[in-house]
């Protein structure tokens, strides 16, 4: 079959393409738009069916999303492996294709065979270089479709692919934000001898997903503080973040030290989340509030500021991030916490900027932390590091002070 670019344009085709291009895509929901475009495709081609299949999250199968004339595909949750059958081959090769004769050797979907279709045409749905799915149409007549039909299908397919990507992006961002907010502490625990405050700003655009902080009281009355950052963004990163948070809480209850909890977390993460990575800082404050025990997996240490003294990064020997193979176990560092001392921990969204060296940004951050009440510290730090700019990455900050 010659490529579409070699097909000479003609007045009739130009008119058909103009009709398709005139469809208003801005005042409809995605479901309405897809249904309208499928109806227009069926009418323009005088076909009997029109169907959209989308790639599932694993990328290995196509799943029926919407159909006219083949509604059973959607109702029955039809799915087919990429590379198998007519639609699967179109997805695998990303090539617009005409099938002049439908047979059991060329089409594996029993719904199509039972429907009595004799010929089919299909185009891949591609947006921003990514395969979104397949659009196919069918006729009860053999050898029914031609290259002009494929040209019309491609225009409609581009619109469907763009609409699906936009909806997916909006839905995933909304879901990731909801998941993030549900897992962040709605209220920091009230702990004798400690006052706390926090800030969290999700990334502008679609970058949000993997940052979190946590604070909890352990059975021995120690206070546990966690700050973490999952590599990546979007809903997938938010889901991994939720799993990490839950697992670390479970390990923290029984672990003798923060290092032991992080080692267990890494073992779990390496087994159940291969290929993922996260930095995690976990420290505890002793029941008498006099000692901080710190362990880090690739995460920056807290900043401490005592009255009358300049703030400093607390001593800490980090192991590699969670998810990175290493024979080196996590170690703990014990640091005294004098009364009136403020601690601040954070994620890299607070200081990483494309236009400024990290060393300079970390120095600005250190200088912004003072021995003051946590709300004041959070406001001062956010003003100094974020100001009136949109953050490019999730930004988490937690400050605390020992009051007795």
Description:
The protein has 404 residues and is of the alpha+beta class. Helix content is 35%, strand content 25%. The strands form three sheets. It has a six-stranded antiparallel beta sheet, sandwiched between helices. The longest helix has 37 residues, at 147-183. It is elongated. The N and C termini lie far apart (81 Å).
Keywords:
404 residues, alpha+beta, six-stranded antiparallel beta sheet, 16 strands, 25% strand, elongated
Global geometry: elongated
Classification by helices and strands: alpha+beta
Biggest β-sheet strands, sense, barrel:
6 strands, antiparallel
- How much strand content do the residues show? 15-25%
Rg from C-alpha positions? 28 Å
Q: Return residue spans where pLDDT drops below 50 for at least 5 consecutive residues.
A: 1-9
Oligomer: single chain
Specify the number of helices. 10
> How much helix is in the residues?
25-40%
Compact overview of the structure:
The chain is of the alpha+beta class and about 400 residues long.
Topology readout:
Elements: H1 11-21, H2 30-45, E1 49-55, E2 61-68, H3 71-75, E3 79-81, H4 85-93, E4 97-99, H5 110-115, E5 119-127, E6 130-139, H6 147-183, E7 194-201, E8 211-217, E9 223-230, H7 234-254, H8 258-272, E10 278-285, E11 291-297, E12 303-305, E13 312-313, E14 333-336, E15 342-346, H9 358-368, H10 374-385, E16 395-402
């Amino acid at each position: 079959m010659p490529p579409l670019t070699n097909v000479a344009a003609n007045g009739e085709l130009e008119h058909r393409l103009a009709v398709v291009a005139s469809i208003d895509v801005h005042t409809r929901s995605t479901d309405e738009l897809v249904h309208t475009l499928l109806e227009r495709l069926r009418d323009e081609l005088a076909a009997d069916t029109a169907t959209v299949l989308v790639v599932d999250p694993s990328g290995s199968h196509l799943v029926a999303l919407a159909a006219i004339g083949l509604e059973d595909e959607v109702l029955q949750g039809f799915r087919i492996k990429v590379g198998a059958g007519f639609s699967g081959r179109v997805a695998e090769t990303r090539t617009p294709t005409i099938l002049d004769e439908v047979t059991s050797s060329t089409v594996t979907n029993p719904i199509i065979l039972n429907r009595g279709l004799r010929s089919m045409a299909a185009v891949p749905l591609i947006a921003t270089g990514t395969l979104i799915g397949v659009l196919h149409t069918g006729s009860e007549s053999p050898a029914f479709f031609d290259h002009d039909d494929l040209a019309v299908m491609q225009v409609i397919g581009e619109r469907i692919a763009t609409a699906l990507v936009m909806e997916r992006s909006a839905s995933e961002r909304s879901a990731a934000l909801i998941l993030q907010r549900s897992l962040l502490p709605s209220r920091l625990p009230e702990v004798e001898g400690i006052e706390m405050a926090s800030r969290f700003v999700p990334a502008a655009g679609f970058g949000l997903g993997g940052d979190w902080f946590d604070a909890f009281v352990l059975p021995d009355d120690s206070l546990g503080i966690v700050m973490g950052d999952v590599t990546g963004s979007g809903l997938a990163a938010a889901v991994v973040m939720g799993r990490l948070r839950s697992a670390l809480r479970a390990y923290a209850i029984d672990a003798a030290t923060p290092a032991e909890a992080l080692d267990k977390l890494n073992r779990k993460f390496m087994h159940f989340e291969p290929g993922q990575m996260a930095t995690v800082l976990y420290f505890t404050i002793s029941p008498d509030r006099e000692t901080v025990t710190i362990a880090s997996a690739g995460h920056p240490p807290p900043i401490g500021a005592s009255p009358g003294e300049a703030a400093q990064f607390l001593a800490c020997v980090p192991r590699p991030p969670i998810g990175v193979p290493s024979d080196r176990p996590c170690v703990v560092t014990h640091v005294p916490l004098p009364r009136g001392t403020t601690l601040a921990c954070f994620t890299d969204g607070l200081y990483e900027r494309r236009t400024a060296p990290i060393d300079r940004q970390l120095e600005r951050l250190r200088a912004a932390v003072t021995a003051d009440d946590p709300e004041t510290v959070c406001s001062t730090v956010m003003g100094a590091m974020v100001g009136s700019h949109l953050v490019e990455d999730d930004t988490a900050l937690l400050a605390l002070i020992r009051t007795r």
